[in-house]
Amino acid sequence: MQFGLFLNNGIFEGVDDARALALTVETADLAEELGYDELWVTEHHFI
């Protein structure tokens, strides 16, 4: 069995774009350390 994460990136009050991207990368790094097999990330245009 394989496990993965789906990250629905969005705009969060009080979080600027740079911090939001950093949080995504930190989450991806942690998922890799924990042995997750896949990571899916949404893509938003014109937000």
Secondary structure layout plus pairing:
Blueprint: E1 4-7, H1 17-33, E2 38-41
Provide structural commentary.
By secondary structure, this protein is of the alpha+beta class. Helices cover 36% and strands 17% of the residues. It contains 1 helix and 2 strands. The protein has one helix at 17-33, and strands at residues 4-7, 38-41. The protein has a two-stranded parallel ribbon.
Radius of gyration: 12 Å
Biggest β-sheet: count, sense, barrel? 2 strands, parallel
Report the oligomer. single chain
Counting DSSP H or I runs of 4 or more residues, the number of helices is 1
Considering DSSP H and I runs of 4 or more, what fraction of the residues is helical?
A: 25-40%
> Which segments are poorly predicted (pLDDT under 50) over 5 or more consecutive residues?
none
Distance between the termini: 36 Å
Shape: globular
Structure classification:
alpha+beta
| Element-level helix/strand string | EHE
Strand content: 15-25%
Total number of strands: 2
Average of pLDDT: 87
Output the keywords:
single chain; 47 residues; alpha+beta; 1 helix
Please sum up the structure shown:
With 47 residues, the chain is of the alpha+beta class. The chain has one helix and two strands.
